[in-house]
Amino acid sequence: MYYSSSGKDRAGGQYRRVELDELLRTSDAVSIHSPLNAKTRGLIGKAELEKMKDSAYLFNMGRGAIVDECALADALNENRLAGAGMDVFSAEPLPADHCYRKVVDKSKLFLTPHIGWASVEARRRLVAMMVDNINQYIASRSGDRSRAEK
After folding, report:
1. Which residues form the catalytic set?
2. Of 59, 93, 122, 145, which is most buried by a Cβ count within 10 Å?
3. pLDDT of residue 38
4. What would the CATH number be for the domain defined by 1-117?
């Protein structure tokens, strides 16, 4: 299931679209993959984190300002969430006094420098797509030349 901040069906009926409250209350893991805009800025704050299961995990792969980072750090320190993985931050590099640095149990918080997408599989797929695009371009140019010769 998923929540759409725009209200649009992004899954073509493959997954059930729900309201944010239901998603947060029922999910064991919530993964954010949204752009930052007026509807998503501060989307996950203290009130939203309190709706999540204390056994749940939150992942943000979208933009840092979607999640209230200090509220998340507090939730982790108060054992209101099992853990979190953040691939993006509201300020990069992470300031020395950032809330995430104050999380007591460091094993609950995984931070990556916006490279969560860069698995071996994802990079192989990216290279294969690039090769395909180049081959399609070359083929289209070859077709143009043969038409011009006729």
Report:
1. 63, 92, 114
2. 59
3. 94
4. 3.40.50.720
For residue 123, the surrounding DSSP H or E stretch is helix 120-149
Question: Could you tell me whether strands 29-32 and 57-60 are parallel, antiparallel, or unpaired per DSSP bridges?
Answer: parallel
- Cβ atoms of residues 68 and 84 within 8 Å: no
Quick check: helix, strand or coil at residue 125?
helix
Question: pLDDT tens for residues 1-53?
Answer: 999 988 888 777 888 999 999 999 999 999 999 999 999 999 999 999 999 99
Sequence-separated (6 or more) residues with CB below 8 Å from residue 45: 67, 68, 71
Exposed, middle or buried: residue 39 (CB in 10 Å: 0-12, 13-18, 19+)?
middle
Q: How far is CA 39 from the centre of its chain?
A: 15
Report if pTM > 0.85: no
**Confidence class for position 116, pLDDT limits 50, 70, 90:** low
Cβ neighbors of 100 (< 8 A, separation 6 or more) are 69, 72, 73, 86, 89, 94, 109, 111
Strands (E), the chain: 29-32, 57-60, 83-86, 109-111
Question: Cα-flanking dihedrals φ and ψ of residue 46, to 5°?
Answer: -55, -45
